[in-house]
Write a structure and sequence with these properties.
The protein has helices at 14-24, 30-50, 62-74, 82-102, 130-143, 146-157, 161-165, 199-214, 230-247, 257-269, 274-281, 286-292, 297-309, 328-348, 354-374; strands spanning 172-176, 179-184, 193-197. It is mainly α. It has three domains: 14-116; 130-298, Intergrase catalytic core (hpI Integrase, Chain A), CATH 1.10.443; 328-374. It has a three-stranded antiparallel sheet. Helix 5 runs antiparallel to helix 6. It is flat and about 100 Å long.
């Protein structure tokens, strides 16, 4: 099916801004170029309807043209997501900077300022509840159809849905006796990875290969056959999840990406190290992984009790006894050991900074003093 395309935008500034987009996106992906073009169209549609007298770049002003456009974006119904607004602001700011250079209109670079761009909202982890997870998995198993098995694969590997539909037919790799891994292709962050899986996931892949063999579409290298474009196939998967949630009386706003959050949280609670969870999810920064992982009070309590039962890196406790305090050099050594312990405990209670560092230097001096005192004769 041929995709519908919008007609070219008719505006006096359209050609200049198109040249700026072409210059900026020479080495960028088509998706980024598309985002630049969306921002340009949004801005020109607004100024074309509101300020028809605007025909030259030199006429552009921050107030009312830029501020009015930003206000119109925020006032849309339904409202645009904050991340969408951020993307359009950043894209138009880059275009104006390019035009300021190529058109020799320096004022264009100051129309959109850094402080105009709102902060990215902190996305909280959204794993499924234990009840939702159990109900959905049971329903997918009961249906045992193509898309149900796709969602089970998502749930037990933590893949993004876009990565899943790009899996190759030979994505399942043997890594040892009764050991397997899924090769996840280049995805959102342009990385690929191997995700270890168990026999259950191995059987899921075998079932998906069986469904692929029944598909009338010509065989290719993909595990899943796309019916139409990739976007239409993804829409079909999301619609299936919506239908399943409705049939089992779960909230219909559950999205496929929540299974990825659920997988990451499950791995942390199973004792998988944080660095390993990052690798499993294909993340490049710990901050990104923390957005996926739900750490509850129960998890914190478990880690706290574990730390108490197996303490590590604690300062040595000074030797104390009920015997009378020793005299002479031995008594001096005991006193210095107690002072060193008290100083170290106090130092560790301080935040990182000048005072904490200075106490560390003093503690090291005490250690040297103790070493010299132990060399003195005791008689």
């Amino acid at each position: 099916m041929k995709r519908w395309r919008r007609p070219p935008l008719q505006h006096p500034l359209a050609s200049a801004m198109a040249r700026a987009v072409e210059s900026l996106s020479t080495a960028l992906s088509p998706a980024t170029t598309r985002n630049y073009n969306i921002a340009v169209r949004s801005f020109l549609v607004y100024v074309g309807a509101t300020y028809p007298e605007l025909t030259r770049l030199e006429q552009l002003r921050r107030d009312p043209h830029i501020l009015g456009w930003m206000a119109s974006l925020r006032a849309q119904t339904p409202p645009l997501a904050t991340t969408t607004c951020i993307g359009r602001f950043i894209a138009l700011r880059a275009i104006f900077s390019e035009l300021a250079w190529t058109s020799q209109v320096a004022e264009l670079a100051r129309l959109l300022r850094r402080e105009d761009i709102p902060r990215t909202p902190q996305s909280l982890p959204r794993p499924l509840t234990a009840e939702q997870d159990q109900v959905l998995q049971q329903e997918f198993l009961r249906r045992n159809d193509l898309v149900g098995n796709v969602f089970l694969l998502l749930r037990h590997t933590g893949m993004r849905i876009g990565e899943c539909v790009d899996l190759s037919y030979d994505c399942l790799r043997g890594t040892g006796p009764n050991q397997w891994a899924i090769h996840v292709p280049l995805g959102k962050l342009k990385t690929e990875r191997m995700v270890p899986v168990d026999a259950f996931v191995r059987d899921l892949v075998h079932r998906l290969r069986f469904f692929r063999s029944l598909d009338p579409l010509p065989a290719d290298e993909r595990l899943l056959a796309w019916t139409g474009t990739k976007e239409s196939f993804l829409a079909r998967l999301r619609e299936y999840l919506h239908m399943v949630c409705y049939s089992v009386a779960l909230p219909t706003d559950i999205v496929p990406h929540q299974m990825r959050h659920t997988y990451g949280t499950e791995m942390v609670r199973a004792g998988v190290g944080f660095a390993a969870v990052m690798k499993l999810l294909g993340h490049t920064s710990p901050r990104m992984t923390m957005r996926y992982v739900d750490v509850t009070l129960t998890d914190l309590q478990r880690e706290f009790e574990l730390a108490r039962s197996k303490p590590r890196h604690l300062a040595p406790q000074p030797k104390t006894s009920l015997a009378p305090m020793r005299t002479g050099i031995d008594g001096l050594i005991d006193s210095l050991l107690v002072a060193q312990h008290v100083m170290e405990m106090f130092r560790r209670s301080l935040p990182n900074g000048c005072a904490r560092n200075r106490l560390l230097r003093l503690s090291k001096r005490l250690i040297k003093i103790l070493a010299e005192i132990r060399k003195l004769p005791t008689n």
